[in-house]
# Entry
Amino acid sequence: MKKIVIGFLLVNLLAACASQKPKEEPKAEVKPAPVVEAAKPAPAPAPAAVVAPAPAPAPVAVDPLNDPNSILAKRSTYYPFDVYVVQEADKPLVEAHAKYLSEHGNRKVRLEGNCDERGSNEYNLGLGQRRADGVKKMLQVGGAKDGQLETVSYGEEKPRQTCHEEKCWKENRRTDLNYR
# Structure
């Protein structure tokens, strides 16, 4: 029995050696990758000229005489009864108009003196003229030229208010600055 077992092993061994190996696919030739030259770097751009930022659009010039936020939009000085001296409260207003006129030699203004209804026509015309002349003098001291200024008195003829009590009269005692 020993012979049979050895024989059986030899047959299997020969069978194992005699079996065909699977065919290997022929190896594809490995071709080296084509050499690609590296792209030459583009020349650096010339340094850009330093460009200043575009200037902001010029603001639209607002005439300070028409700007409601400007002191120049106010055009009247007010007085107590029977007074023609410019009051402390109105001096900054007159000074601002004087500065404006000194910087704008082409502008002209008519100073119109007004009074309330109390007093005679002749008295009120004289008082209105003294009020207009007082403002004119302050404007000249502030730099306005005589040729820019004209004075006139309307006395009680151009009231701003028509009631017959103090709240209206104080509105009528004034000098108006009317630009032309």
User: Anything to note?
Assistant: The chain has four helices and four strands.
